[in-house]
Amino acid sequence: MAYWLFKSEPDVFGWDDLVAKGDRGEEWDGVRNYQARNNMRAMKKGDLGLFYHSNQGKEAVGICEVSAEIHPDSTTDDPRWECVDVKAVKPLPRFVSLEQAKAEPRLKDMALVKNTRLSVQPVSDEEWAVVMELAGL
DNA sequence: GCCAACGTTGGC
DNA sequence: GCCAACGTTGGC
Questions:
Q1: How many Å does it take to go from CA A129 to C1' C5?
Q2: Nucleotides in chain C with any atom closer than 7 Å to protein CB
Q3: In chain A, pLDDT over 70 holds for what percent of residues?
Q4: Would you call A90 exposed, middle or buried from its count of C-beta atoms within 10 A (0-12, 13-18, 19+)?
Q5: Which whole number is the average pLDDT over A12-41?
Q6: Which CDD domains does its entry note (predicted)?
Q7: Which end of chain A is more exposed for a tag (fewer CB within 10 A), N or C?
Q8: Does nucleic acid strand B have an atom less than 7 angstroms from the CB of A117?
Q9: Closest CA relative to residue A72, chosen from A58, A60, A84, A54
Q10: pLDDT tens for residues A51-92?
Q11: Distances in Å between the alpha carbon of A29 and those of A46, A82, A94?
């Protein structure tokens, strides 16, 4: 199983919004970046991801799960853009901030730290384990 | 609100 | 196919 990180601005669509969607989850639409899309193409149903609040909070707040694999993005007619569905699994007992990630040597290569503008990122097994530790899981 | 980083677009 | 111009993201 692979791990990922999904970025969203809480003002637009935050963790609480995903939780409100329940088990059906929500389409991760609106991605217009090839790298991010390619990451979504690689996702399998059941993969887990960190839900990260960009701009406000700047912290990972919860764990979500890929509930549907890649399919066309319903918000555009452009066939290039596809997306997956995600659903909330559980909130993190302790949020893990960007600041913490930057301060943690084991996370120095994390895409979150190195490539701040990428909205859908892969997370390695090792990075996932460290984040879980910081989150109190 | 500013600006750096970076991706995309379009002229040549 | 290169590269300048432009747009967007996201941290600060």
A1: 43
A2: 8-12
A3: 100
A4: exposed
A5: 94
A6: EVE
A7: N
A8: yes
A9: A84
A10: 999 999 999 999 999 999 999 999 888 888 999 999 999 999
A11: 18, 8, 27
